[in-house]
Amino acid sequence: MTDLEDESFLSRQHVMFAYRCARFLPTPYQPEDSNRMALAYFCLSSLALLPGSAVSSASPVGQSALDAMLKPQQRQGFIDWVYEQQAPGGGFRGSNSMTGTGKGKGAAAVIPGEIPLSSTEEEEFARLMAFDDQDEDEDRPPDAPQAEEQVLSPAHIVQSYTALLILGLLSDDYSRLDREGLLRFVARCQCPDGSFSLFPGAPEEPDPRSVFPAFAISSMLNDWSACDVDRALSFLVTCQNPSGGFATRPGLEAQGGTTYCSIAAFSLSSRMSTLPNPEETLRWLVSRQVPPPPPPPPSDSDSESESEPKATPAPSKPMAGFQGRIGKTTDACYSFWCSAALRLLRPDLDLLDPELDRNWLHSCQHPTYGGIAREPGASPDIYHTYLSLAALSLGGQPGLFPLEPAWNVPQAVADRIKRSLARSTA
């Protein structure tokens, strides 16, 4: 990592934004409570990409903002919370907000007091409470301890992927990881067509976005026994559009996120040489870098409130971000999905203009509160903040740590995960 040289990059504000989000997410995030694991990953990985020197002159060279900001008790609290989401049958939930009761020491604390229900509601509640999240396996030893609680929310393949990354970000030794249970969970998620569901029996139609975390988990564990790799890659090939990009399902429009997930799956499984039509895919990805739309003209209300802080400065430099689909406007998150896919597909080629994308992402920063929005003038959020930081890292932004694009985590953390998971199997 180089020293901080780019004054237009608001590293200190971004550290404080990510740290605030890691501690207290504001009200608009309430609908995403079941995805708290992924949100925690965005917060902590943002801090891991940013330098500690952005907030403290006493921070040693090479120390991340994550290591500089988190106190030992906070770090341990995050680790303990992640393991609390480990399901009895393997894998991790997104949060404990949907934990059910009826068993265990925490029963009274989860549902305080009786809730009056109609007879129909009682039947439905009984059905939900009987949901078998333990994923009993025929090989389970008869004397194995039973879980104290059943839960309404099952383990989730995306949340399991981000849980492994969080533990790596926090330097956990993975000694509490149920590796075999996690592998069984991943195996149960694979569908007959080779795709992966978000969890066994999930109502959502599988697509490449759930294949990627299954492959990432297998790669991190260095154990591919839970995946039929050939079938999974065959499914991805059916999702490839004639233009070279990848869609959510066969015959649909290609998108930047699903294209990244598909290419990352080929890369993680060391099958990149078998990717069909790589030239078309390369062309499709490069074509996604486009100029943003011109800013709207100022309205009368804008002129009346000149004293209020503006969300973003007026663009003054040439810029070009990335669109997720043909004909769409630029969105900050696609700077990562598309540039990371290109880095994995052809690391030997330099086909993009990172300075144009850097100028675009800088224009999406909030100058006062930090964070990066999907576009200039929008409110920043932790999802777009992290993916923008990841894209800036890939583009050589001074002051950011290098990123490992296939796992989507800082390179130093990826190296630590490899070492820690290797030791946990010894």
Topology (SSEs and partners):
Blueprint: H1 11-23, H2 36-49, H3 65-69, H4 72-84, H5 107-110, H6 119-129, H7 157-169, H8 179-189, H9 208-221, H10 229-238, H11 256-268, H12 278-286, E1 289-290, H13 300-304, E2 321-322, H14 333-345, H15 354-363, H16 382-394, E3 403-404, E4 409-410, H17 411-424
Helix pairs in contact: 1-2, 2-7, 2-16, 7-9, 7-17, 9-11, 11-14, 12-14, 14-16
Q: What attributes characterize this protein structure?
A:
single chain; 426 residues; mainly alpha; two-stranded antiparallel ribbon; 17 helices; 4 strands
Outline of the structure:
The chain has helices at 11-23, 36-49, 65-69, 72-84, 107-110, 119-129, 157-169, 179-189, 208-221, 229-238, 256-268, 278-286, 300-304, 333-345, 354-363, 382-394, 411-424, and strands at 289-290, 321-322, 403-404, 409-410. With 426 residues, the chain is mainly α.
What about the largest sheet?
Answer: 2 strands, antiparallel
Sketch the topology as an H/E string, one letter per element: HHHHHHHHHHHHEHEHHHEEH
Provide a count of the helices. 17
The class by helix and strand makeup works out as mainly alpha
Radius of gyration, in angstroms, nearest whole number = 22 Å
Give the uncertain stretches in residue-range form.
101-117, 127-151
Mean pLDDT: 86
Number of E strands: 4
Termini separation comes to 33 Å
Strand order of the largest sheet: 1-2
Share of residues in strands: under 5%
- Share of helical residues: 40-55%
Shape: globular
